[in-house]
Design goal:
Structural class: mainly alpha
Number of helices: 4
Oligomer: single chain
Shape: flat
Number of strands: 0
Distance between the termini: 44 Å
Order of helices and strands: HHHH
Number of domains: 2
Radius of gyration: 21 Å
Largest sheet: none
Length: 77
């Protein structure tokens, strides 16, 4: 890391956690160069692929009640 980048990082670490999270989100978003239309197209393809897997029996779904029960068990509720 060069000196300027190190200085910026040290300044960022002085921010409140919520501000650091906001900054991280902003910086991460600046790296995403995929156009929104392309992102939507890719998600639609992924959704169609997953639906086809379920319909073909290639994957088995889990009832939401079971998922929530397991999540509650894992967090100790």
């Amino acid at each position: 890391m060069n000196a300027t980048l190190e200085q910026i990082a040290q300044e960022a670490l002085r921010l409140a956690p919520a501000q650091r999270a906001e900054l991280a989100d902003f910086l991460a978003g600046s790296l995403d160069i995929t156009p929104p239309d392309e992102v939507q197209r890719l998600w639609l393809e992924e959704a169609a692929r997953r639906l086809a897997e379920v319909r073909s029996g290639q994957v088995e779904t889990i009832p939401v009640e079971d998922v929530l029960a397991e999540a509650r068990r894992l967090v100790g509720r």
